[in-house]
Specification:
Blueprint (H helix, E strand, L loop, with lengths): L4 E7 L31 E9 L15 E13 L6 E10 L1 H16 L11
Antiparallel strand pairs: 1-2, 2-3, 3-4
Amino acid sequence: MSIWASTVTVGRDVFGSEAPDGVIGYAEGWSNHYPDRVVEKPACVDLAEIPAWCVPGHRDDYSDTATGTWVRMSVNVWNDQYGRPMCATGATVNLDPEAARALGKALIEWADSEHVEPTEDAP
């Protein structure tokens, strides 16, 4: 049994939700092109945390808000393996609060910056 409790999924989840495809995989060997929803597959980023009662020494702590000092982040890419849609984990890392804050800050700064899209007449 896992000690991790999933909290957030951004993008297409393992159940094939119709969530917006705002997350797409990276096509290996294609670093020379602008991301394309036709070439890259839908993907998702999942977060999971450890409830307090699963942290060693806190077995009797039934707080609904306290968690362990790590958050797990998984990046998954959609595929049709085994004849059914599923996400195959691409990478999973654990972040402490300082690393999570640094990542969150960098993502917010990027999201709030000016963005441009390819034009129709682009080659």
